Amino acid sequence: MKYFRKMSGEKCYLSPISLDDVELYTQWVNDMEIGQFVLFSTTIYDIEKEKEALKKLMEESISFAIIEKNTNKAIGNCSLFGTSEVHRHGQFGIFIGDKSYWSQGIGTEATRLILDYGFNVLNLNNISLEVYAFNKRAIRCYEKVGFKLAGRRRNYLFMAGKYHDVLIYDILAEEFESPYVNKLFERSSNEDTEAKKISWI
């Protein structure tokens, strides 16, 4: 099996990216409907170019494949990049490449899982993102998770004959409730406590 459960939710789990999926990723990044939200549309990718892009992503960021839980099917990826151990911040990015899984809550769950990893494993304090103002689906997801609008780059992107704003969002560790990591440690701690009680009986 090529996927490994690093962070697990109800609908999906996060796994290290597998280069075996390079053909699938190549299909996604050449899809103009997907590319308009992440600017893949400005570049033409063949399999070799996408393989190099995936390798670079894996080397220069903390990236996971998003795996649909029932089918063990890769449907996208998410990343933390530009992380600083000194200043405890990083940037977030995500895309769901399989359009049949859009608007089903999987992107929201994957976002919560990687934020949990960033805040409660990497001990970051601030995680930010940039999103195109026309990407309403993504904005709803980010706001649902708890991201707050922090700024706006006006007329920053020119696409389809129009200028578009880019919105800057961020979220702090104190504003985020862990869906996985803290519960995992609490469960382990409770098991240790019960084991100690038994040992004293």
List the helices and strands and how they pair.
Layout: E1 7-8, E2 12-15, H1 22-29, H2 32-38, H3 47-60, E3 61-68, E4 73-84, E5 89-96, H4 106-120, E6 126-132, H5 136-145, E7 148-159, E8 162-172, H6 181-200
Helix pairs in contact: 1-3, 4-5
Determine Rg (CA atoms, Å). 19 Å
* Strand content bin: 25-35%
Distance between the termini: 43 Å
CATH architecture: 3-Layer(aba) Sandwich
CATH class: Alpha Beta
Shape: globular
Number of self-contained structural domains? 1
Proportion of helical residues: 25-40%
User: Count of helices?
Assistant: 6
- Per DSSP E runs of 2 or more residues, the count of β-strands stands at 8
Major sheet: 8 strands, mixed
Mean pLDDT: 91
Which strand order do you get reading across the main beta sheet? 1-2-3-4-5-6-8-7
Low-confidence stretches: 195-200
Structural class: alpha+beta
The CATH homologous superfamily is named: Gcn5-related N-acetyltransferase (GNAT)
CATH topology: Aminopeptidase
- The ordered string of helix (H) and strand (E) elements is EEHHHEEEHEHEEH
